[in-house]
Amino acid sequence: MTQLFPLPIIQPFERLQVTDGLRITADRWQRAHDYHRHRQNLHYQSVHQPGIVYGLGVYPTVAPADVPSKYRDGYWLQIQPGIAIDVMGNPIIVPEPIDFHITTRPTTETVVVYLVLSYVDPTELKGLERQEMVRETFRIDEKNSPPIAREVELCRIQLSPDGAQLEVPGDVFAPGFNQIDVRDRLSVQARPHTMVMLAEVVHPDDPTAYRRSTQLASFVRSVSPLYPAMGAQLTALSLYELQATTTPIDLLYFTGEQPFLPTQTEATALQTYLEQGGVLLVDVPATGAALAKSMMDFAQSIGTPLQYLEPPLPLRAIATPDRQHPLRTSPFVFAQLPHFAEQPIQVLVGGGIVLVLGDLASAWGVSDDRLLPREMIRTAQEFGINILSFAAKRRNWMQLVRSPQPLTYSSSSPFESAAAVPRNVGEKPHSKQMERIIGQL
């Protein structure tokens, strides 16, 4: 899963205007050089993400010879020379090995210790002796909480209360207690062109939704390695929380066997979310006919009836496949929709709703009950990336052409399901195409 780092602050640069006779003072000299430094940092922040360039290895070592005996325990580490760059674009250079003593001692429960590196501007140090040249420096800290934005993680260690000494992990992919864990170190890399924020709508009483949730998490982890221009982050929320969240959500993921029965508040929040550019991905499993029918009813209620992206053969006479829809062309091209279990998936689109019928999500990762070929998993992931790209573009482009007003949720709603009473499909007329769609479920 791609980590989200802040973008540079929108603030214009000011530079010294040089003219003949200008008197160079220490302040003007400093500002002239700060201008170039800040431009360099802005460039790095804009196109790269922070992390380690190379080096900065960490391993257990013995206490230095000049350390008092009471500190000669098995909690010493040595940080090797190396280079990192922080989130502000500042280079951090560790020129020589550094011995570091871990001081945390858990008493009753295990504690995770984070070893982090951060940049220190020498001009901000107090009591620094005035000299002609000063060295940019750094600091190494031991923490009991995850790194903040300005810190670069070197390693983490899960300390046990039994007082065992620090050691090299026997398996670096699965370090144990008191073993150095470097799995979450970040390397410098290009900033993704697109960062997609996903939110999974929680279903505490739907076991099908829980099983497919695991596949969704696996898919999110595969996005950046498969398509480096895109990153993805996943969270979970309820439809009720949608109206209060301050995080810009590009795509809501909804799945399960149960029908979609929102309360009036939830339906209004979802409709506003769609009108603001959000996308709702409805993943319908083979046993999810009730979900498909209720979601089609919801889409028609808000004035965006769902249409086939590629109509089945019986409907080709009245509907033409949309070969140029971004779901089929960007960034990966699909001449025909993917097939899973020898059956093509069906995709219906209306406004910001994307409804997928079939086994797309079940092929997003490794499953214990299905041994899928690599080509099928890759195809499913690539089509999933097309869905993420569609969601990110839709939300971004709609925001670019709309007034930047905050989201508001009206108390009025066109829905009459305040008590979440199941809708009967026969209660309102559907178009002939909608009847054919429901008849195929």
Automatic annotation (TrEMBL):
Domain DUF4159: start-end pairs: 251-391
Superkingdom to which the source organism belongs: Bacteria
Alphabetical list of InterPro entries matching this protein: DUF4159
Any Pfam family matching the protein: DUF4159
Name the UniProt record assigns to this protein: DUF4159 domain-containing protein
Organism, scientific name: Oscillatoriales cyanobacterium SpSt-418
Top-level taxonomy: Bacteria, Bacillati, Cyanobacteriota, Cyanophyceae, Oscillatoriophycideae
